[in-house]
Amino acid sequence: MIEDYKKFDKSIPCPVRTLMDRIGDKWVVLVISTLGEKGTMRFNQLHEMIGDISQKMLTVTLKKLQEDGLVSRKMYQEIPPRVEYTLTAMGESLLPHITGLEQWAVANMSGIQQSRQQYLSAK
Amino acid sequence: MIEDYKKFDKSIPCPVRTLMDRIGDKWVVLVISTLGEKGTMRFNQLHEMIGDISQKMLTVTLKKLQEDGLVSRKMYQEIPPRVEYTLTAMGESLLPHITGLEQWAVANMSGIQQSRQQYLSAK
DNA sequence: TATGTTAGTTACCTTTGGTAAGTCAAAAGT
DNA sequence: ACTTTTGACTTACCAAAGGTAACTAACATA
C-alpha cells in the first residue's frame, strides 16, 4: 500500500517526497534518460546532447545524482581532464519508469497544448 | 524514437521538457496520485490528505493541472463553497506512470539513503 | 454580535535556477 | 617565449519559483 507514504509525517522521510525532490529537479530526467540511451558519457557530451543546460546546472545535477547513487563518476588523471558518467544499477532500474513518462509525454503533447490554449482563451 | 525530442530545439516545444516542467513542480505528483487513489476530492480533503502543502501551493498546483487538462474542477454554488477536483481521462492515463515511480521510490528509499550517507561521510 | 466554514488571495521573504565570466594545468600553435 | 585551446568545472551575480502567515467573501449557527 503506497497510501500510507503519501500523508506527511515529519518523523518518517516519505519516499515519494524524497524521490520527487530529486526527479523534480529541472534537469534530472533529461540527464538520466540521456545517460540511459548512450551508456557512458563525458561531461561535455552530456552538455551538447541536452543542448540548453548550463555547465553549472549540469554539475550540480550530476553531483546530486551521484549522491543518491543513481550515477557513477570516473575521472582519469589526464590534462585536459576526462570524466565519464554512467548510470548505476539503481539508476538503470529507474530508467524504465522515466522512459514510460517520456512516452506518455510524447503521446500527449498535443492534448496538453490544446488544453492550455482553451484554458487561456476561456479567460 | 524519443531521442529526437531530447536535444533542445527552440523552434519545437520538447514534450519531455514540457511534461517535466509540470511533473517537476514540487506537488504535482502527490496531487495526481492522491486524486487517483480517492477519485473525486474537495479542496480541503486534498489539503488534509497531503498534509504539508500550503493552501497557496495547492491552488496554484490545481490551476496548472486544470490548464494542462489533467484535472477537472467542479464548483457548486453554495456557501460555504464546495469545489470538487477529479482526474480527467488524460490525467488517468498518466497515473500508472506516476504510481510506477512511486513504487520505485518505496522500493529504493533505503538504497538512496545509504548512498547519501556514504557520500557525505566520504567527504 | 462573535464564530465557524470553505476555498481561496495577498504581501512578503527565502531558496532554487540561470547567465556569463573566470580557473586550472598542460599541450599545441605562431 | 607567448598565446590559444581543451575539458571540467567554480564563482559572482541576478531572476524566478516556492514558502509562510495573515487576510477575504458570504452566509449559518451559537
TrEMBL record, chains A, B:
Keyword DNA-binding appears in the UniProt entry: yes
UniProt keyword terms in alphabetical order: DNA-binding, Transcription, Transcription regulation
Residue ranges annotated for the HTH hxlR-type domain, each copy included: 14-113
Alphabetical list of Pfam families matching this protein: HxlR
Gene Ontology MF: a single term: DNA binding
Keyword rRNA-binding recorded: no
Protein name, UniProt field: Transcriptional regulator, HxlR family
Organism: Chitinophaga ginsengisegetis
Lineage of source species: Bacteria, Pseudomonadati, Bacteroidota, Chitinophagia, Chitinophagales
